[in-house]
From TrEMBL:
SMART domains: FCD (SM00895), HTH_GNTR (SM00345). Residues 120-147 form a coiled coil. Keywords: Coiled coil, DNA-binding, Plasmid, Transcription, Transcription regulation. It comes from the Bacteria. Gene3D superfamilies: GntR ligand-binding domain-like (1.20.120.530), Winged helix-like DNA-binding domain superfamily/Winged helix DNA-binding domain (1.10.10.10). GO terms for molecular function: DNA binding; DNA-binding transcription factor activity. This is Lactate-repsonsive GntR family protein. Residues 11-79 form the HTH gntR-type domain. It comes from Sodalis praecaptivus.
């Protein structure tokens, strides 16, 4: 695919590469579903390092307009020019409304029940595992991927504390889907002080064997996410 891209000889090479790639997506040169040139091809075209190319592609990926499939390459995910949703400051949620709603119902059904069970069945080791996951979240507030992994471990620890083997198996089997869901929320909405405080409150409530406080806190946080996503979709 021959695309006219200017060679980059500027200080902020990542931003220049990003802007040129963005232009080709917006003007339709790289259409939805189109596979982007390989990392090696982009490196040669721009005459820059692979690190710079990776950083520019990552910025596009974070905005949700390209997706990388392991072993296959990077593809444009949507017609951003036509729908005018390509904003440098407004990341796109790469998660369908149906997927989000399904996870919302799953969490209300399973996690809320597991918190009630955890209040009765949690051991000191369960509480310690919950606290360790929370600490990893606090340490990784500036890295949404690491934060999301710790976030999943936190919610998995709640389910483990229920000591219900079926719930635990279901939660572990959904790990990939659940982490993707958390990564999208944390990437698009950001890791806010409210989110961190909500997890701390849930931990303290479970530690104090207060199921109602834990459920109310998590429900409020999830409701806030729904509203925040609606605001992001319709600014």
């Amino acid at each position: 695919m021959a695309v006219g891209i200017e060679s980059v000889q500027k200080q902020n090479v990542v931003d220049v590469i990003y802007q040129q790639m963005k232009k080709h997506i917006q003007d339709g040169t790289w259409e939805p579903g189109c596979k982007l040139p390989s990392e090696a091809e982009l490196t040669q075209t721009f005459q820059v390092s692979r690190v710079s190319v990776r950083s520019a592609v990552q910025k596009l990926r974070d905005l949700g307009v390209v997706v990388t499939h392991q072993g296959k390459g990077t593809y444009v995910t949507r017609d951003v020019a036509r729908y005018d949703v390509f904003s440098d400051n407004q990341p796109i949620l790469h998660l369908s409304r149906e997927e989000f709603d399904d996870m919302y119902v799953f969490r209300q059904t399973v996690e809320f029940r597991c918190m009630a069970l955890a209040v009765k069945n949690a051991t000191e080791d369960n509480i310690k595992e919950l606290e360790q996951a929370l600490n990893r979240m606090l340490v990784n507030k500036d890295d949404y991927k690491k934060y999301s992994q710790a976030d999943f471990d936190f919610h998995l620890a709640i389910v483990k504390a229920s000591h219900n083997k079926i719930f635990i198996h279901v939660m572990e089997s959904l790990k990939g889907i659940y982490i993707h869901y958390l990564e999208e929320l944390n990437r698009v909405l950001g890791i806010t002080l409210e989110s961190v405080e909500a997890h701390i409150k849930v931990f303290m409530a479970l530690k104090n064997r207060d199921a109602q406080a834990a459920t109310e806190t998590l429900n409020a946080a999830m409701t806030h996410n729904v509203q925040a996503l609606e605001d992001a979709r319709h600014p």
